[in-house]
């Protein structure tokens, strides 16, 4: 997304951009409904009253492990391999955590957890520190240390991808430059996701 923000800024240098961090899709929807935001980048779930959602990309899941973990040497991890692994878990009330839990239940995977986090970056950090394994989405453009770094991200292709995209109150009421910003980000993220898969 950072490349898209830079590209938008270069094309529209006089436009004011304000970014606000929220801790969940739910809090993004609340901020939209209250009129505090024009756009929110969210993990997409079911319909939300008064909010329009637009999918942008489906993110594949990866297993974050320390470089010295036996799973780090694999090209991929099968869903069945996750059974019994101590996972750093996302909040159950988060959209991404609920989607992951639903996928595990549907696929018959039972995992344990004694560490929980509120965001993916913290999950990656804790996995890097060896406090467990983390199943997180592969974020387009997210850089992970190379072969000599402390963290590895191993694809888990058997899990259904995580849909992410934009949420707004109404697309037809969105200011024109906010729509241009949303389209710029969507185009860049889709391109980065395609490059990531190649």
How does this model look, in words?
- The chain has 198 residues and is of the alpha+beta class.
- The chain has two domains: 2-56 and 162-197, Periplasmic binding protein-like II (D-Maltodextrin-Binding Protein, domain 2); 61-155, D-Maltodextrin-Binding Protein, domain 2 (3-Layer(aba) Sandwich), CATH 3.40.190.10.
- Helices cover 32% and strands 22% of the residues.
- It contains five helices and eight strands; from the N terminus they run ααββββαβαβββα.
- The chain has a three-stranded antiparallel beta sheet, with helices on both faces.
- Strand 4, helix 3 (95-107) and strand 5 (112-116) form a beta-alpha-beta unit.
- Helix 1 (2-11) crosses helix 5.
Q: What is the CATH class designation of the largest domain?
A: Alpha Beta
| Number of DSSP E strands | 8
Oligomeric assembly:
single chain
- Strand order across the largest sheet: 1-8-2
Mean pLDDT across the residues is: 88
Q: Please estimate the helix content.
A: 25-40%
Please indicate the percent range of residues in DSSP E strands (runs of 2 or more): 15-25%
Number of domains: 2
Q: Can you identify the CATH superfamily of the largest domain?
A: Periplasmic binding protein-like II
Uncertain stretches: none
């Amino acid at each position: 997304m950072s490349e898209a923000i830079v590209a938008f800024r270069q094309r529209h240098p006089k436009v004011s951009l304000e970014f606000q961090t929220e801790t969940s899709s739910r809090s993004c929807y609340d901020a939209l409904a209250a009129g505090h935001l024009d756009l929110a980048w969210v993990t997409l779930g079911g319909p939300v009253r008064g909010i329009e959602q637009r999918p942008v990309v489906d993110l594949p899941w990866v297993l974050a492990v320390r470089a010295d973990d036996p799973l780090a040497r694999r090209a991929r991890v099968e869903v069945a391999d996750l059974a019994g692994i101590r996972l750093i878990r996302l909040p159950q009330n988060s959209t991404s955590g609920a989607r992951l839990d639903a996928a595990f239940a549907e696929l018959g995977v039972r995992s344990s957890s004694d560490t929980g986090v509120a965001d993916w970056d913290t999950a990656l950090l804790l996995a890097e520190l060896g406090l467990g394994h983390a199943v997180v989405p592969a974020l387009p453009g997210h850089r992970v240390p190379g072969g000599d770094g402390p963290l590895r991200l191993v694809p888990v292709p058997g899990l259904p991808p995580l849909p992410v995209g934009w949420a707004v109150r109404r697309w037809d009421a969105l200011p024109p430059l906010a729509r241009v910003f949303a389209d710029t980000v969507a185009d860049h993220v889709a391109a980065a996701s395609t490059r990531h898969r190649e």
